[in-house]
């Protein structure tokens, strides 16, 4: 096992991405059982431990992806020019997005429609109707999921990359040397809070608005990519963890006992501020834990880091498909939960390990770089033994 030195890649960010991707998988498994709107629901809803888990992780899992994406953009632009950066972005994000829109989303919409009695017939009969209207929300009338359903993150990241590229190219040299200090930690949540209180309903995805995610992506580029932030995280990380846990506990208590505030009011504003502070402090706490425990590399990281994109692309369609086969069965919720998590994980990883990673055409479709023929041949020999 290799330990990171001062000048090498920050492996902790790769580990965080992998681990949070797995949490996203568990979160979407939990959505099958909890009381929140989703594409398909179990015949029995769990309002206790499963719903608790959904509330525990639902606020921060997508924000941390946009922060890490901003950091990755900063380091990518240190090595690439604009043309190279955009070419890779369209290959790594655009092609998987198209795969999601035209191949992976139609079965998900179909299952949602037939389980909610909005359509009767086979998938082949439904497919021409997939292009009827835009799918804008769960339970809506349109079918065409132009954002790839769960792959909306790829669409947002692609748009953010295009919008910010001219500014990032002009200012990238002035980022790394600047110090991150306590004023940044205290003041930066202010624009995030303003966005949450004013424009959070504009293209709201996974409970946060597009402007909120856009700000986090920019913050990732300009602030979280600074080397000085790591020193700051080591000092503030434990305190941020305490504050994040307090905010998380307050949020969960509020939702489970009083529900989500629906109308704009003072209590709604306090609720949104708690959510922003929850996200902000848990970001620092997660970076603190990563810096302390995950700055290591090895074969496991190399394998799981590459697998994370295909895993992300496949996880929701597989969960929904399996959910369709079990949602009306009389199994106990814990049995269904174990079956869903274990079977979905096994199917996804089998598809990746035995198929996607070994075929260059599939690698490109799932956002991976093409592999040299010699390496592919070696993998084929290993699997045949």
List the helices and strands and how they pair.
Blueprint: E1 2-3, H1 11-31, H2 49-58, H3 61-79, H4 82-115, H5 123-126, H6 152-171, H7 182-187, H8 189-198, E2 204-205, E3 208-209, H9 210-222, H10 227-258, H11 266-293, E4 296-297, H12 299-326, H13 333-354, H14 360-365, H15 373-384
Antiparallel strand pairs: 1-4, 2-3
Helix pairs in contact: 1-2, 1-3, 1-11, 1-12, 3-6, 3-9, 4-6, 4-12, 6-9, 8-9, 8-11, 10-11, 12-13
Q: Helix count?
A: 15
Nearest-integer average pLDDT: 93
What is the percent of helical residues?
Answer: 55-70%
Q: What gap, in angstroms, lies between the N and C termini?
A: 26 Å
Number of strands: 4
Q: Which residues sit in consecutive blocks of at least 5 with pLDDT less than 50?
A: 1-7
The neighbouring-strand order within the major sheet is: 1-4
Biggest sheet statistics? 2 strands, antiparallel
Number of domains: 1
Tell me the structural class.
mainly alpha
Radius of gyration: 21 Å
Could you characterize the architecture of this molecule?
α3 crosses α9 (210-222). The chain has one domain (2-354). Helices cover 69% and strands 2% of the residues. The protein has 15 helices and four strands. A hairpin with a 2-residue loop joins β2 and β3 (208-209). With 385 residues, the chain is mainly alpha-helical. The model is unreliable at 1-7 (pLDDT under 50). It has helices spanning 11-31, 49-58, 61-79, 82-115, 123-126, 152-171, 182-187, 189-198, 210-222, 227-258, 266-293, 299-326, 333-354, 360-365, 373-384; strands at 2-3, 204-205, 208-209, 296-297. A two-stranded antiparallel sheet has the order 1-4. Strands 2-3 form a two-stranded antiparallel ribbon.
